[in-house]
Specification:
Largest sheet of chain B: 3 strands, antiparallel
Number of strands of chain B: 3
Radius of gyration of chain B: 14 Å
CATH architecture of chain B: Alpha-Beta Complex
Distance between the termini of chain A: 43 Å
CATH architecture of the largest domain in chain A: 3-Layer(aba) Sandwich
Number of domains of chain B: 1
CATH class of the largest domain in chain A: Alpha Beta
Oligomer: heterodimer
Structural class of chain B: alpha+beta
Strand order of the largest sheet of chain B: 1-2-3
CATH topology of the largest domain in chain A: Aspartate Aminotransferase, domain 2
Largest interface: A-B, 18 and 17 residues
CATH class of chain B: Alpha Beta
Distance between the termini of chain B: 37 Å
Radius of gyration of chain A: 22 Å
Order of helices and strands of chain B: HEEEHHHH
Structural class of chain A: alpha/beta
Chain lengths: ~400, ~140
């Protein structure tokens, strides 16, 4: 599927935005869904309409089978085993699961957690709360001006008190790629676990959790061309085996009497309640779609469009935050507020994100409160960039 | 009145906001932020009885919130708290009206709003309404203290 064919696969691109061609440059917030995902969700609502794992009739059985297929699809995508794949509602839920279930069991007074300076709030606030509750210390690993994690500074923070290192695979603001394997090797050397927030990585990078050497990997379906309200927590089987449950209730118990419950094996132990069946089946379809693509060709197109966006921003005298490598370009346009940039761009049919992108600390690191962000997917093309360039010129016109 | 969001008047107030800066001896102060974007505004007022004698605002925000704060401050000087409460309500109603609302039903309100009618374009930019109303929320919070 070349770029033209990929664009045709996304029906949302057909609509007009304020009477203009839609240039959707907000994939890092949420990506559009291809027709095959939309169809899979509708089909699931019709034919996998029962409650998975909770019935013997036709529609319940169909739901169970389809959900199991989706789990295997995720496992193949990550280079993992299906029984290591926990379904959640998104990256935020996946990380909170680890903080609540693993964190409470493994972190005590005097222990420490390391998070980097560029983390999304969802990979920072759970650790702030956990550390405060457990009397543990939260250490922040700095990044340099380009947005690269300072490994020497990380080494200085790593000691035997550290139980977990939390790091974004790809920064949602700076678009930099973290050296996860190098971080994991360092963390493991002091006995710490490594959690990777893969939300911004899965749509752009090939993921192999074994090669990365991490212990937890979290991502959301809606940033991978899947439906919102779907997510994954991958963890090594031995870690899941030793982990107490997070939420408790139906579907995650083996036996219950009046006083006690015996929990099921992973991954079901961590999936209390009826799951988002249709959404997760849609996530499976999204991953099948991604796996059907020539990922090298997609990466080449994305690299070209990404570089063109950076040039368009510079041509408009914008200042790019950090040195982005993949997916996103965040920038400041003189003293014009990002909200005003995004609103004027919107009027020109260009969808941008403005604000702090749920990552305040890294904005403060760059001396700003907020930025404007353009982000791309497998459907982004050169026309999107040309439209962005015109929109930025219009911003300059309005604000002089 | 055109529906353009960035009216010349708004851009003008954004560039050179009135009553922008610190204010010593304020009798009423409130700081409010917009969790959507992290914008923040502090409004300081010196009340003389029930009437605003002096007002100033500080903080960081977009063109819409700065211009709204500037225009609001111009209107606030010499106004009573009751008048400002009414103005805030009228402005909130104005920006929340449907984009194609006709002039007639709210013509009287429009006249009372004065320069603030420049914010008519916000009706089409639903997510930006809170930017325009943020300064008024801060003013009301300050006056309530």
């Amino acid at each position: 599927m070349d770029l033209t064919a990929r664009r045709r696969a996304f029906p949302a691109l057909d609509q007009r935005a304020h009477g203009q061609r839609l240039a959707y440059l907000d994939a890092a917030a949420t990506s559009l869904q291809p027709r095959v995902v939309i169809d899979a969700v509708v089909d699931a609502a019709l034919h996998a309409a029962g409650n998975p794992g909770r019935g013997v009739h036709l529609l319940a059985e169909a739901a169970s089978v389809a959900l199991d297929d989706a789990r295997h699809e995720v496992a193949r995508f990550l280079g993992a085993d299906a029984d290591e794949v926990v379904f959640t509602s998104g990256t935020t839920a996946s990380i909170n699961l680890v903080a609540d279930a693993w964190g409470r069991a493994n972190l005590g007074p005097g222990d420490a957690v390391i998070a980097t300076e560029l983390e999304h709030h969802s990979n920072l606030v759970p650790w702030q709360r956990l550390c405060a509750e457990r009397g543990a210390e939260l250490r922040i690993a700095p990044v340099d001006e380009d947005g690269r994690i300072d490994l020497a500074a990380l080494d200085a923070l790593l000691d035997s008190k550290v139980k977990l290192v939390a790091v974004a695979h790809v920064s949602n603001v700076l678009g930099t790629i973290a050296p996860v394997a190098a971080i994991a090797a360092r963390a493991h050397a002091v006995g710490a676990r490594v959690l990777v927030d893969g939300a911004q990585a899965v749509a752009h990078l090939e993921i192999d959790v074994r090669a990365l050497g991490c212990d937890f990997y979290a991502f959301s379906g809606h940033k991978l061309y899947g439906p919102p309200g779907t997510g994954v927590l991958w963890a090594r089987r031995a870690i899941l085996d030793a982990m107490p449950p997070w939420q408790v209730g139906g579907g995650m118990v083996a036996r219950v009497d009046r006083a006690h419950a015996r929990y099921r094996e992973p991954p079901y132990r961590f999936e209390a309640g009826t799951p988002n069946t249709t959404g997760l089946i849609g996530l499976g379809a999204a991953i099948r779609f991604v796996r059907s693509l020539d990922r090298a060709a997609v990466a080449a197109d994305e690299a070209r469009v990404h570089a063109a966006i950076a040039r368009a921003v510079q041509a408009a005298d914008g200042t790019i935050l950090g040195r982005p490598e993949v997916g996103v370009v965040s920038f400041a346009l003189g003293r014009v507020h990002p909200h005003d940039v995004a609103t004027i761009a919107d009027q020109a049919g260009v969808a941008l994100r403005s604000g702090h992108h749920c990552a305040e600390p890294i904005h403060h690191r760059h001396g700003v409160d907020a930025s404007t962000r353009a982000s791309i997917g497998c459907y982004s093309d050169d026309d999107d960039v040309a439209q962005l360039a015109r929109a930025l010129a219009r911003v300059r016109e309005v604000f002089g | 009145m055109s529906d353009d969001l960035y009216q010349a008047l708004i851009v003008l107030h954004d560039r050179a906001p009135r009553h922008h800066g610190p204010l010593a001896g304020a009798t009423h102060v409130a700081t409010i932020d917009n969790p959507l974007c992290g914008d923040e505004i502090t409004v300081r007022v010196i009340l003389d009885g029930d009437r605003v004698q002096t007002i100033a605002f500080e903080g960081h925000g977009c063109a819409l919130s700065r211009a709204a704060a500037s225009m609001m401050s111009e209107r606030a000087v010499g106004a009573t708290t009751a008048e400002l409460t009414a103005l805030a309500a009228r402005f909130a109603q104005f920006v929340q009206a449907p984009p194609d609302a006709t002039e007639a039903p709210d013509a009287a309100s429009d006249a009372a709003l004065g320069d603030l009618v420049a914010f008519r374009g916000v009706r089409r930019a639903r997510s930006r309404r809170t930017c325009a109303t943020l300064p008024f929320r801060a003013l009301l919070a300050a006056l309530a203290r």
